[in-house]
């Protein structure tokens, strides 16, 4: 009796989890299905749920409508450079807050924590005019430069460096005549590689998927990131959904593939980042 | 002790300059943040407060208009509608989602589940998808056509097609579904991490005392998860107040049924060139976030007290 009840429970839980997993993956699968179908299928009953034969043709239509690879490249440049900047400047500042003595250290760190609570939309309009004044409208610099270092990155790096590196190691290196930057470069950087991986994934994903700010400052097609480019596809007057979802599918695929390859690292990075925040 | 003092004394001159060097390096290393924050964070924020009291089209002169921007938006029904929509979409998108996430997490945490890592990946993958992509896919899923996938599925149950994009509740439910889909797995994995940190012997003790499974859930699991639940509710609340991309893409512009407060702000600024009222909206949003954060804060404090 007891055993039978356990079996029923086991089946119920698995059925629940499998239904959840299917619902979770289905929209992505369906994105692929639509990317392979001609436009008129969208109004056909019953709806298509298996791939058609328009995979190549739909993507060719995407290429005719937006500079897909240019936008991918822009996204890649923006996300990579921002990530490099965040890793470098945040770890440098995190190191200072964790290990270097200077006056006002705790107060300045508290200021950084407070800045995390300001909603980004509050300064959106003046930010737009600053970018205009700098002549950076339609320039990838408008995305990269303001994002080069952020409060969360500094907070994250400080916590990590504080625990990961013993003070004695730093003192010893200083006595050996290392400059402080050398201490950072030769001792801190090699021992915080896991923190770089976590913060790197968080930052890259955030910048790659960001929408509001790029939409505000990138108005010219040549400067579009991939998110703005697929939005432009969808915004066209005549809607060819096979084409729109083809663009969306190919824009989504790279990150999903990288996620599947490194899923453990991704999941722990993205959830850790949030819990510790 | 004596010898220690002695060493200190002999290296003092060098020690002092070392201290200064360290401090200098410290200031230098943290300066990039403060420099960038001054230009792209603090100044814009303060300037928003200034602009909220000016009339400005982005090109000509600014003129001081006092609180007129605020009275303009406060008498605009669409502004209130956008706040109402934001709250309704936020509640619809996060309330059921957090409950579902908790159920999924408890199911995943059960010892008898096989292929846990496969489930984790499947639940997490929506969160890697960009909001733009999600909004586009769901626009097609929630097509107004009878042949739209959601309408066709409802049709199987004899429910007549819903105009998802142009009806008051349709638009809200569709947008809330997008939020649900993108975050439920993410939050269930956060809950799962919390569940795994609850000591097993608590459940064993309850079992011995004859507590049923649902009692264990209500009186052990939920209280032990409280810090994580509070955190998730905090982030979800602030995230909900900033919904922008979904209604912009789903409603194909600025439809009334799906107008949110950030969308209203964006429309005032970049579609109507009314930067004064847009800034007044930004300030109002800021105050709204403070209000909601405070409510959250007091609610979680009260829970704390009643829990003890």
TrEMBL record, chain B:
InterPro entries xrefs: ABC_transporter_permease, MetI-like, MetI-like_sf
CDD domains the UniProt entry points to: TM_PBP2
Transmembrane regions listed in the UniProt entry: 24-53, 83-109, 121-142, 173-195, 216-245, 274-299
Organism: Anoxybacillus flavithermus
An annotated GO cellular component: plasma membrane
Membrane association type: Multi-pass membrane protein
One record GO biological process: transmembrane transport
Subcellular location: Cell membrane
Keywords: Cell membrane, Membrane, Transmembrane, Transmembrane helix, Transport
Domain annotation ABC transmembrane type-1: ranges: 83-296
Keyword Methyltransferase on entry: no
Protein name: Sugar ABC transporter permease
Family: Belongs to the binding-protein-dependent transport system permease family.
């Amino acid at each position: 009796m007891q055993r039978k009840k356990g079996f029923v429970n086991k089946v119920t839980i698995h059925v629940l989890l499998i239904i959840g997993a299917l619902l979770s993956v289905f929209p992505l699968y369906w994105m692929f299905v639509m990317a392979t179908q001609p436009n008129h299928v969208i109004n056909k009953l019953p709806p298509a749920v298996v791939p058609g034969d328009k995979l190549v043709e739909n993507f060719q239509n995407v290429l005719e409508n937006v500079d897909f690879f240019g936008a991918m490249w822009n996204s890649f440049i923006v996300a990579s450079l921002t990530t490099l900047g965040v890793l470098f400047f945040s770890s440098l500042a995190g190191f200072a807050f964790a290990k270097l003595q200077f006056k006002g250290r705790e107060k300045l760190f508290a200021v950084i924590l407070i800045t995390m609570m300001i909603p980004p939309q509050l300064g959106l309009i003046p930010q737009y005019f600053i970018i205009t004044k700098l002549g950076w409208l339609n320039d990838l610099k408008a995305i990269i430069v303001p994002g080069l270092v952020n409060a969360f990155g500094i907070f994250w790096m400080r916590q990590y460096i504080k625990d990961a590196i013993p003070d004695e190691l730093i003192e010893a290196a200083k006595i050996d005549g290392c400059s402080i930057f050398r201490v950072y470069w030769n001792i801190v950087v090699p021992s915080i590689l896991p923190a770089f991986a976590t913060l790197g994934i968080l930052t890259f994903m955030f910048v790659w998927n960001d929408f509001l700010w790029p939409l505000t400052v990138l108005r010219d097609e040549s400067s579009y990131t991939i998110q703005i480019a697929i939005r432009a596809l969808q915004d066209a007057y005549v809607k060819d959904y096979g084409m729109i979802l083809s663009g969306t599918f190919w824009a989504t695929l790279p990150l999903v593939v990288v996620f599947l390859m490194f899923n453990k690292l991704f999941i722990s990075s993205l959830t850790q980042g949030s819990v510790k925040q | 002790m004596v010898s220690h003092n002695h060493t200190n004394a002999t290296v003092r001159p060098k020690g002092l300059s070392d201290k200064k060097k360290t401090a200098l390096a410290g200031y230098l290393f943290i300066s990039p943040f403060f420099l960038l924050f001054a230009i792209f964070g603090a100044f814009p924020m303060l300037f928003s407060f200034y602009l909220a009291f000016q009339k400005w089209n982005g090109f000509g002169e600014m003129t001081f208009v006092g609180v007129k921007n605020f009275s303009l938006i406060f008498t605009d029904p669409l502004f209130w509608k956008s706040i109402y929509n934001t709250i309704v979409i936020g509640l619809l998108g996060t309330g059921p989602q957090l409950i579902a996430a908790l159920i999924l997490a408890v199911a995943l945490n059960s010892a008898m589940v096989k292929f846990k890592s496969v489930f984790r990946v499947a639940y997490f993958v929506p969160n890697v998808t960009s909001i733009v992509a999600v909004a586009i896919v769901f626009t097609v899923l929630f097509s107004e056509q009878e042949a739209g996938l959601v309408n066709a599925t409802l049709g199987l149950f004899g429910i007549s097609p819903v105009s998802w994009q142009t009806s008051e509740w349709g638009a809200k439910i569709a947008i809330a579904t997008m939020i649900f889909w993108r975050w439920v797995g993410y939050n269930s994995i956060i809950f799962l991490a919390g569940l795994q940190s609850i000591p097993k012997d608590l459940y064993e003790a309850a079992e011995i005392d004859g507590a049923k499974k649902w009692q264990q859930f209500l009186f052990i699991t939920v209280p032990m998860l409280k810090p994580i639940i509070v955190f998730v509710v905090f982030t979800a609340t602030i995230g909900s107040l900033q919904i922008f991309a979904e209604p912009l893409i789903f409603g194909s512009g600025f439809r009334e049924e799906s107008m949110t407060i950030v969308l209203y702000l964006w429309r005032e600024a970049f579609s109507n060139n009314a930067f004064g009222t847009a800034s007044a909206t930004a300030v109002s949003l800021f105050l709204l976030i403070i209000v909601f954060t405070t409510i959250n804060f007091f609610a979680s404090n009260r829970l704390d007290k009643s829990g003890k």
